[in-house]
Amino acid sequence: MLTAFVPRSQARPDAAMLVRIRPPVSPRAFDTPSDAGGCITVRWQLSPDDQPGGKLVEGYGIYRAEEPAGPSAALRVNSFKPIDVVPAGTTEYKDSSTDDAKTYRYRLVALSEFENSEPAETPVAQSSLQLFNLNRLNLLVISIIISGTVIFYIQYLKSGRQTFIRKIAGLEAVDEAIGRATEMGRPILFIPGIQDMNDIQTVAGMIILGRIAKTIAEYDTPIEVPTSRALVMTTAREIVKEAYLAAGRPDAYSDDMIYYLTDEQFGYVAGVNGIMVRKKPAACFYMGAFFAESLILAETGNDIGAIQIAGTAMPAQLPFFIAACDYTLIGEELFAASAYLSGEPKQLGSLKGQDMGKIIAMACILFGVFLATLTSVTGSSAILEVLEWFRSFFSVSA
Amino acid sequence: MDPEKIKVILATDCGSTTTKAILIEKIGNEYRQTYRGEAPTTVEAPFEDVTMGVAGAVQELAELSGRKLIDEQGRIIKPCQNGQGCDIYISTSSAGGGLQMMVAGVVRKMTAQSAERAALGAGAIVMDVLASNDKRLPYEQIQRIRHLRPDMILLSGGIDGGTITHVAEMGELIAAADPKPRLGMGYRLPVIFAGNINARAEIERCLQDKTDLSIVDNLRPVLEEENLNPAREKIHDLFLEHVMAQAPGYKKLINWVDAPIMPTPSAVGSILKTIADQKAIEAIGVDIGGATTDVFSVLKGVFNRTVSANLGMSYSISNVVAEAGLGNIMRWLCFEMDESDLRNRIKNKMIRPTTIPQTLKELILEQAVAREALRLAFRQHKSFATTLAGVQQQRTIGDTFEQISSGAGLVNMLALDLIIGSGGILSHAPRAEQTAMMIIDAFLPEGVTLLAKDSIFMMPHLGVLAQVHTKAATEVFEKDCMVYLGTCICPVGQSKQGRPVCRYTLELPAGNTVEETLNFGEMRLIRLGLGEKAKLAAEPTRNFDLGQGKGRRIEQEIIGGTVGVILDGRGRPLNLADDKKRRIEKLREWMLALSVYDQKALEEKGLVGAKAPAGAR
Fold first, then answer.
1. CATH number of the domain at A174-325, please?
2. Rounded to an integer, what distance in angstroms lies between the CA atom of residue A129 and that of residue B494?
3. Which residues of A touch B110 (CB under 8 A)?
4. Rounded distance, CA A190 to CA B129, Å?
5. Nearest C-alpha of chain A: how many angstroms from B139?
6. Mean pLDDT, rounded, for B294-312
7. pLDDT (tens digit, 9 = 90+) per residue, A118-137?
């Protein structure tokens, strides 16, 4: 292992008796492509004495000098400063400490235990910033494909054509649940989970609340939204107020519909259960992030005979909701809800485009597995090459 | 009267244009329909007396049967004595546009739909459905009530102990509209309230002084249950008391009959329900008229009826084309036809509604339109015949990926046992095969389904008879009303043309056995006469289902008819070829296989080649 330079002056006196090793061949320095500047790549061919298994060359010392250097060759020699050592067998070095405003010249020296080689010098090079990082061209291609499908589907739906969107029973049943509450003359309860607004599930729940509130305003049915976070309460109030306005019933909105109970998980659950038992809502919605309270809430709702629609991306809570509620939005269905409910071409097109992206990703994974299996079974170098290319296409380098 | 003593039954149906009379007599131990007479209906000026038309139809019947039925005073002779007169006289009526109603409820898909179901089941035409969530502003709803002038209004809403405010709001709307009935200026509009019991006081306050208010039991006492009978019975009573009483001559007719006069569609529904309940089958009936198409169904014991008011074969024929699209009409034509030619023929039919096809091409075109009218009417029926919405579901973890919602459709074609076609285009088609083919193409039956047609549109008479003498009604229905066309066997699934769909063995009554394979895209006909039965054993290939699951063998007895056993290997859903030439080729092949049209006539018109059909036997 090389840990430091061994300058010629400090080499052992009897080293002169030995045959001097040869320097690396054809050194060149150039601006590192596809980077943000500040980096020069130095590349060379191995010294003829650097053979696999050979012990003559122990490594390569890399020196750097800023240009313009001194007027004489002697001065120039002295202006080279060691910057790094790389092990034997290496043919490339990236100098990431350059200044884009300066030009540099590099010298490479093959290092030996006894005496180093003559230096091999590169022409001058200068680092610079590139506008395009071609190493990430694959990401561009993938982005274009996915964005293209999204744009295609948006345009497709905007033209008035129809596309298949799988029915989500839980969302289809929203009107039914509100209708039930209206016929029964009882309120609707909406629980937005127990997380704050920084949780994406709470955000998705709020979007669904907006849609529900609009229908509720049209049906003229009371709603109760107890929250466990102050920010959620404020957001919910704004959303419900806006929905009532959109439905043409701003007079029917009251801030008292949405209120804060407590941040404490089980204090909140006890409060909500009390509301359920006292007011016997005909429809209960649970949309957001839930933990241990999920089953307690859903069981109470089931007990009072309410239609219950739940939606969460918490895998551990899903079985409880599925068993105790009438309908459950599972995982991504919760996030797809806003597009599904709005029926707008822009949102539906995005949803469809994203789905296509997922299908493409799944197809690529399956193809990669197939290629790897085939390579392993047949040992074919041609298939291996395809596999390597395929793998490199999906690898992201700096 | 003791049903056992009833030997001769006289029944009439007063339609908008014709009054039809039938005579049912007890011959030996069974009741049979023996004679039929008809005369123009006389509700309109200059006669303005419905009994004149009734007397005319009965007189024709008397002349045909040689039995004196009307005395010198012009009254029906009852009871039957010395070979004269009849034991009971019953009647239905759809004259003067039938019973036209508006219904109202709180939520469109819940109580308003139940009210609609009650009104349709009672034989009414529902002119409009008002609901709190129908997205109309109150003034629009009031305008609508004033504009439509229904015969009566059925108001529902709220479960017992449920909402009062919404129901009271609907009551206020009706009161504000101050509606006037369509017939008779001297009486107040009948309004039936069949909603929340706690809202009765409010409704009385709003409507007592302005309308003739009747209050019956809630038709949705709880959301999980529908109780339509009290509302339906009240509709019938009010139909007789108010609507019929205002129509010219009906007061006299009401005194003649031995059972309450029923609206014609209600009577049709009544006989279908009776038959389906007795035989424990699922059945669908359709009556395609000139202006409207009625679809009746008894599915899982639930009776439903829909009226497609804009689908018919004469007055509404243009609506059928507009709704279905020209392409859908033309896809059933086995010859090329210019679009403008087709349009002209359709418009001619609309402005001359009583004309009948004079050429084979016209007949094929009219039957193509009928296929689409029936298809659209059935589609509408499927969306209406649903389970109750708003019902709480009980789930298990097994429902994770299949959460079936309430309000799901009741129609399951694989479980359907019987389809009955009625109406001129079906009942009077030149060949029974044409009726069968129209029914199959429009309804797309699945599995094993019996097809039948109503011979002379006798179902209304039998419907009202079923109320007083069920045995006589069912016997006549079986023996004289129904003309069985045969059994249709349609495996459900998709495959490539020519690939095997199912292997079947048919043990025919003559002792011979047919053992063959049905291929995809083929239709076959095996003759099996009226009243004959055969034993079917069919084994569908793994992609096809005959009702027991994919690839599962079925064995059952099947009934023949005027057509026989139809094997439909076109797959479900039915996809006709996009390429016009290929589609026409296939249509011709199926027509020849089922002998739908006279082959000679088709050849003469150049509609088919002279090649013998592959599937006919």
1. 3.40.50
2. 61
3. 179-180, 183
4. 31
5. 16
6. 88
7. 999 999 999 999 988 888 88
